[in-house]
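In response to the reviewer comment on reproducibility (Comment 2.3), we provide here a single inverse folding case reported in full, input and output, so that an independent group could reproduce the run without further information from us. The structure tokens appear first.
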């Protein structure tokens, strides 16, 4: 990689555009970058880093820092352009950071986004644009350069102070720096991944062991006494030997459980024998008790049977008389039926005679029947007159209906005539209403189009008046902010000038006896400067700078706020003026206009809303007009038809009246006369029938008395009354028979039980004791249940132990591969972490890789260090442990004069400088090779040359000058005046109040 040209605009301390021609400086191979403190030497290197990576080195990328120059004018944008050759390609990189710029319209500032451009030079000499994307440009350059920003800053921009600290630092600090340069994060990731795998495998092993311990706990619970015969395992989860201990203990528990099952089975067999004997004894006692009670009960039933014998004989006699009376029962029932029929007939005859006239109360059945036939014939003659009377009534109803219809038609004709008389006026009024509604709708649309713009103009006028006050206030705030910014900048420049005048005293205050000066590199300080009157330190300058930046930010915010308020005010002014108004109207004028348009629009909208109703009213009126004309015409037609119908009704009514008058006689109507005749016929028919029924009932009662007397004599009764007294119904006879049968059955049962020999023999023996035998039997059964429960429990424990032991064995088999995996991963994790006994030097994997890189760096640095030290010193890598720390990143120097090997921290100031320079150059070679062999044709070395004597300085410069043999150019950044004499090609950075500038001295 070779740098050709660098252009800086408004970057850092450079207020204008400055150009650095690296081709001219590199032609000599070695060039010097010098200038006073604070001029911007390091900013040149920062610009190179920013162009390549879009950021300055990390140590100078502080929060809140800006890359824009405070000396630059507001219209000059910050920009860095770098032209270089890398990977055989000539590229041009242009970058601009995010920065404020003046607005194109109005006052104030807006923030311009960061921009990047990448171009490539084609063979014809022109430039071809490649990309404007930050990400694409970053990826393209990273692939070509092959180094990260940190690696580039360490390899190309060699910071000697960092490598001097690297020589004196411990292994941990060296590891951090080397890890950034060689990107060994993948090896640290391998360590962490193996540690995670070890923890995960350990967790799985512990989880499996916990499952085994849980099964052991369940085995202890399930085994009961059998599990206590052997000591439970005390190995904890994760410890070796847990699985074997649990399986051995479970086997002992199973063996003890099987022994307990055998003992419990013997106990159950003995208990079953005792229970069988007790059951047989209880059954014998219960049988003897039953027979004794049965014999006693037989004696009690025999005594009760003899006491009930008289009752049995009475029932038997009563049942025999009832069965004789049953033969007389039909005659008794016949006599009672005849008596009831006669009473009913006599009562009916009395009621019928009471309804007849007095002259007919003694009439016989024949006389009454003759009168009935006479009145029936007269009733038949009234049928025609009754029909005529019904017809006359219907004619009257028809006449009433015609009169009612005539009145309704007359009323309809009057209403129709009255309504039709006003039809022309009604139609005109409704038509005018429709026309007015349509005109109002059109007017409402026009007013709505005028009202919305008027309201927007009124709102804009309100905003315009309010924003006018805001504009005035923003202008005052901007004026005050500008004055404060000018005062703060003047004060900061004054403070900075005073500090620069006394900067020598400030640097002298940091000198330490015996340590090299950071400016000239000398370890002797014969006449350090002292602060003069009015001297200010860096803190005062930083505070003044912070105040100045704060004031500038306040001024920028005030300008931005004023531009925003003015823009809003102009927008409101334009909206309030409208399209055709020559001047902006007042709020009162616009308010009056809006009120007038609102009132007119409301009235027009109200009238337009009646359009549909008006049309509906006109349509309904026209429909009603047609309907009333038709109704009036139909009514006149119905009136003519009713006149003819009335004349026909009058003729029929006269004819029917003559017929009805002749038929009704003295009655009010024919129907009344017919009803009276009908009632007379019915009374006479009922009376004749009642006379005949009474005579028949008397004859049947006499015959029934004769048959009853004959039946009672034949049955053996003296009178019919005695037979009736002995009658019993079927239920009473069944009850008597049941009582007789029950006594006889009880007598037969007692006789049978008296013949039982076993009951008699049992009665002669002592009384039985079933309670004592039952108690003995219950005790035997309880003992059997307890023994059976103990046997079942022992069998369940044995089965549960077998099941749990099988689960434990399965879990142990399942955990076997997991435990083997854990042992393998734990061994690898211990080796990479440096904690394993197999890792003798206790080196982590990342430290081991870095140690190999450090060994390469030491070998590459030794080639230059021997030349710088006239063959005296050699850098060697050491992996020896120091104290309790781990080994791997030690760095020693071998002194050829003494033959001793010592730590690099024992070198003097000058020796430390050229040793660190050799280390930096060696590191650059190794990192370049690591990054894919990208050639680095331009290097920069920062400070430290003041600590060398003339001879050593010459040797160091010879080494640096030898880099030209490989077509390299080296830039030295230093304050040492002697270097300006020794190095003719120089780039001088000068500073003044308007910003720094660069000058080439070639």
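Designed residues, in position order:
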């Amino acid at each position: 990689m070779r740098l050709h040209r660098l252009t800086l605009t408004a970057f850092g301390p450079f207020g204008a555009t400055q150009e650095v021609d690296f081709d001219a400086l590199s032609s000599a191979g070695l060039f010097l970058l010098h200038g006073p403190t604070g001029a911007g030497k390091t900013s040149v290197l920062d610009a190179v880093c920013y162009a390549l990576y879009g950021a300055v080195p990390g140590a100078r990328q502080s929060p809140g820092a800006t890359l824009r120059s405070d000396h630059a004018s507001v219209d000059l944008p910050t920009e860095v352009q770098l032209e270089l050759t890398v990977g055989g390609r000539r590229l041009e990189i242009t970058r601009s950071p995010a920065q404020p710029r003046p607005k194109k319209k109005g006052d104030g500032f807006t923030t311009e986004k960061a921009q990047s451009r990448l171009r490539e030079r084609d063979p014809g000499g022109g430039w071809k644009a490649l990309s404007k994307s930050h990400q694409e440009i970053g990826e393209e350059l990273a692939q070509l350069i092959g180094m990260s920003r940190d690696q580039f800053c360490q390899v190309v921009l060699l910071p000697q102070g960092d490598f001097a600290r690297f020589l004196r630092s411990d292994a941990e600090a060296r590891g951090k720096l080397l890890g950034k340069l060689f990107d060994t994060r993948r090896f640290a990731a391998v360590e962490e991944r193996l540690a995670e795998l070890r923890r995960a495998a350990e967790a799985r092993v512990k989880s499996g062991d916990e499952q085994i311990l849980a099964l052991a706990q369940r085995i202890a619970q399930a085994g009961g006494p059998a599990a206590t015969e052997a000591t439970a395992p005390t190995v904890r989860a994760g410890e070796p030997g847990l699985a074997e201990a649990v399986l051995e203990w479970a086997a002992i528990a199973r063996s003890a459980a099987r022994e307990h099952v055998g003992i419990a089975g013997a106990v159950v067999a003995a208990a079953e024998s005792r229970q069988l004997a007790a059951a047989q004894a209880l059954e014998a006692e219960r049988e003897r008790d039953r027979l004794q009670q049965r014999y006693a009960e037989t004696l009690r039933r025999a005594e009760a049977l003899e006491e009930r014998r008289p009752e049995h004989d009475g029932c038997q006699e009563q049942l025999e008389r009832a069965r004789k009376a049953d033969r007389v029962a039909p005659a008794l029932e016949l006599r009672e039926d005849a008596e009831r029929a006669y009473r009913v007939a006599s009562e009916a005859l009395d009621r019928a005679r009471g309804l007849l006239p007095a002259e007919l109360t003694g009439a016989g059945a024949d006389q009454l029947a003759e009168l009935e036939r006479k009145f029936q014939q007269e009733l038949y003659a009234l049928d025609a007159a009754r029909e005529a009377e019904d017809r006359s009534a219907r004619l009257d109803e028809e006449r009433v209906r015609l009169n009612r219809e005539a009145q309704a038609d007359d009323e309809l004709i009057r209403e129709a005539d009255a309504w039709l008389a006003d039809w022309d006026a009604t139609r005109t009024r409704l038509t005018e209403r429709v026309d007015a509604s349509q005109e109002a709708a059109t007017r409402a649309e026009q007013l709505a189009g005028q009202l919305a713009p008027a309201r927007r103009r009124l709102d804009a006028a309100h905003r315009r008046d309010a924003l006018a006050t805001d504009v005035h206030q923003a202008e005052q705030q901007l004026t005050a902010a500008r004055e404060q910014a000018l005062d703060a900048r003047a004060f900061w420049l004054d403070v900075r000038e005073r500090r620069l005048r006394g900067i020598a005293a400030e640097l002298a205050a940091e000198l330490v006896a015996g340590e090299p000066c950071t400016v000239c590199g000398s370890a002797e300080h014969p006449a350090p400067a002292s602060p003069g009157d009015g001297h200010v330190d860096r803190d005062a300058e930083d505070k003044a700078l912070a105040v100045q930046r704060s004031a500038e930010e306040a001024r920028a915010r005030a300008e931005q706020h004023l531009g925003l308020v003015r823009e809003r005010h102009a927008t409101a002014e334009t909206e309030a003026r409208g399209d055709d108004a020559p001047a902006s109207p007042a709020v009162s004028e616009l308010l009056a206009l809006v009120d007038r348009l609102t009132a007119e629009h409301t009235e027009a909208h109200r009238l337009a809303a009646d359009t549909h109703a008006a049309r509906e009213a006109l349509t309904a009126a026209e429909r009603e007009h047609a309907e009333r004309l038709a109704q009036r015409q139909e009514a006149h037609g119905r009136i003519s038809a009713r006149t003819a119908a009335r004349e026909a009704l009058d003729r029929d009514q006269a004819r029917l009246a003559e017929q009805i008058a002749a038929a009704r006689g003295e009655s009010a109507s024919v129907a009344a006369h017919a009803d009276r005749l009908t009632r007379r016929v019915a009374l006479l028919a009922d009376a004749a029938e009642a006379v005949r029924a009474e005579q028949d009932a008397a004859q049947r009662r006499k015959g029934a008395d004769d048959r009853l007397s004959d039946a009672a004599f034949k049955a053996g009764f003296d009178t019919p009354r005695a037979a009736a007294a002995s009658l019993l119904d079927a239920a009473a006879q069944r009850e008597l028979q049941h009582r007789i049968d029950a006594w006889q059955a009880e007598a037969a049962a007692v006789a049978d039980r008296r013949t039982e020999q076993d009951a008699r023999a049992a009665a002669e023996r002592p009384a039985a004791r079933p309670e004592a035998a039952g108690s003995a039997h219950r005790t035997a059964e309880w003992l059997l249940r307890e023994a059976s429960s103990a046997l079942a429990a022992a069998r369940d424990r044995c089965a549960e132990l077998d099941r749990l032991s099988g689960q434990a064995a399965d879990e142990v088999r399942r955990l076997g591969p997991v435990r083997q995996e854990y042992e393998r991963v734990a061994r690898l994790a211990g080796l990479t972490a440096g904690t394993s006994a197999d890792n003798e030097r206790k080196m982590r994997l990342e430290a081991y890789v870095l140690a190999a890189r450090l060994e390469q760096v030491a070998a590459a640095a030794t080639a230059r260090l021997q030349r710088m030290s006239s063959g005296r010193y050699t850098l060697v890598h050491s992996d020896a442990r120091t104290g309790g720390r781990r080994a791997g990143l030690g760095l020693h120097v071998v002194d050829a004069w003494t033959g001793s090997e010592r730590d690099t921290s024992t070198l003097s100031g000058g020796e430390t400088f050229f040793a660190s320079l050799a280390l930096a150059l060696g590191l650059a070679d190794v990192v370049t090779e690591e990054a894919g062999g990208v050639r680095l044709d331009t290097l920069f070395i920062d400070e430290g040359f003041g600590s060398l004597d003339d001879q050593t300085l010459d040797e160091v410069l010879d080494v640096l000058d030898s880099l030209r043999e490989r077509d390299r150019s080296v830039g030295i950044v230093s304050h040492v005046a002697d270097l300006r004499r020794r190095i003719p090609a120089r780039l001088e950075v000068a500073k003044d109040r308007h910003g720094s500038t660069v000058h080439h001295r070639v």
